[in-house]
Amino acid sequence: MAVFTAGELYDIAVGIEKNGAAYYGSLSEVAADEELKDIYRGLADMERHHIAVFQSLRAGAGSGPVVPPVDEAEYEAYLKALIDSSVFTDDSVAKQLARNAAGPGEALQLALGAEKDSILFYSEMRDLVPQREREAVERIITEERKHVRELSDLKKRYS
User: Fold this and answer.
1) Phi and psi, residue 154, nearest 5°
2) pTM for this structure?
3) Which of 2, 67, 97, 128 is the most exposed place for a label (fewest CB within 10 A)?
4) How many whole angstroms separate alpha carbon 154 and alpha carbon 108?
């Protein structure tokens, strides 16, 4: 029996986005470079927008379990592993990692890892939520992919 409902998946997504917003917000506070400060602020704002989208989807989510495309117990363990292995386990960890980054290169590498983790989780989530909600999740995945490209370019410049 699957223990995840669509609502629970949205709750997890909200947590991921809150941790990302905390990380980028902390980076904007400690960055010496004004361009990086602005970019981090913009990324934090985008994460807050994603929070609002997922909260809106959560409000309309049903309470029944999602039906995974494969063996339920194995898929449930896979999703839990994705969640447990994420770069930022909570917002306090995210803030601490931002403060302790050795420089922009390390901070950007951590951000890249977090964005990739979120894309992976949201890609799995998209296939589990009701059809009518998939387009909104796909838009967020597309935005997260843009973040990966932007962060990768920045990392090349600041490493």
Assistant:
1) -65, -40
2) 0.84
3) 67
4) 7
